[in-house]
Design a protein that fits this description.
single chain, Rossmann fold, about 20% strand, binds adenosine-5'-diphosphate-glucose, Trehalose 6-phosphate synthase, alpha,alpha-trehalose-phosphate synthase (UDP-forming) activity, Glyco_trans_20
Length: about 475
Amino acid sequence: MTDSSRRVDFVVVSNRLPVDHVVDDDGTERWQPSPGGLVTALSPVMATNDGAWVGWPGRADLDLDEFDADGLHLVPVRLSSDEVDRYYEGFSNDTLWPLYHDVIAPPHYHREWWEAYVAVNERFAAAAASIAAEGATVWVQDYQLQLVPRMLREARPDLTIGFFNHIPFPPYGIYSQLPWRTQIVEGLLGADVVGFQRPADARNFQSAVRRLTTATTSQTAIRLPDGRRLVAKAYPISIDSASYEQLARRPDIRERARQIREDLGNPKVVMLGVDRLDYTKGIGHRLKAFGELLAEGRVSVEDVTLVQVATPSRERVDAYRQLRDEIELTVGRINGDYGTISHQAISYLHHGFPREEMVALCLAADVMLVTALRDGMNLVAKEYVAVRHDGDGVLVLSEFTGAADELKTSLRVNPHDIDGLKDAIVQAIEMPQAERRRRMRAMRKRVLEFDVAYWSSTFLRELAASKNP
Ligand code: ADQ
């Protein structure tokens, strides 16, 4: 909660503050910026608008005053460890996340999780309301905070309120399972602009609005019974493309890419997967396809290596612990069955890496495999394209990602169709250079032009224009 008298004209509200609390070897505690696309996109807007960022600092039971870090004014929201369990790991990660990703894993519905979600959303809304100046713009991020727009509007009708959903919005047949479906939709209708990754997500939301409220919709416009209008449409998120390309041109990073290939035994083809270890990412489907190709002799471990980076994620949620066991069992089996002393089939890495290393991995990879079963956007696909300034490399991309709407010359796959996925992997491995370049050129045009700055400026411009008279 804020206790200073500072008021600002632009407020971002997200579950996590864009900083991590770190303790150095000598015991010194400090805040380290966690570099992500959102911070990169919003930092300039923050600086020119006297902005503040409201969010949870990432540790339970931490009482903190507002502070400045890395040029950002940060307003911490306190969560108790019980709230972290119920609001974050429970309702956000074990109810909404699986529900919004096509129930790939079963969502769990618990009333005490919902109650914590409401209470925490109220706290975020109160923190935003107390830091926002008269007539300020507040931009609320993501599915953990869907009740905040309405709560804020009730407290502060003078504000202009935007909301962006980073994950999909499900079709009504799935969404309607949610016992609190009406409250969530009404929460979002508190915004002036509700942004989604894909037009299909915006349409799903509008259909939920029609089914659950008396509001009317026409294309991207929604009209509420009190006459207020809002916009619900797609604003596909992107990356800071130029900075990825710059890193990829650095001689030390290019040398590192060469070193990675050498360390892998200089196979003819390096394939790469980079995902949070999440059941939405289709890592198991990818491993199954690769394992079968090895079993059938369509690819050999001497020629082809798969590097799979699986970033640790949500390890206190049961479904994620089980997934980790399954994936690691499969990797172990494939390596045991097909590996040789000098060539491993899969190089599996269960940890985070600095951005430089991720760029080197992308440069080293002839084929990038993105096989998500459902993904709001998938930034990894765009990062691979931004890095490949040499114009080479093949992106195998699931049609169930938001990125597939934009990267139309990728090799698009349905990851549920294992035979189709296997054929696409072989096609990627064997693709002639001229075709690789032609496909990559079209994708690079898209990713370099429509970067994350374009995303935030478009959203904020339409938010400014949406202000009801
Ligand atoms: P995520 O589900 O986290 O994001 P994604 O879009 O791929 O998925 O973003 C992951 C980011 O983390 C990428 O920038 C990637 O480079 C980075 N990363 C992954 N593994 C890493 C590792 N081991 N070390 C370092 N960095 C790593 C959610 C939605 C997506 C949506 C984004 C943004 O699920 O659909 O694209 O938000 O809106």
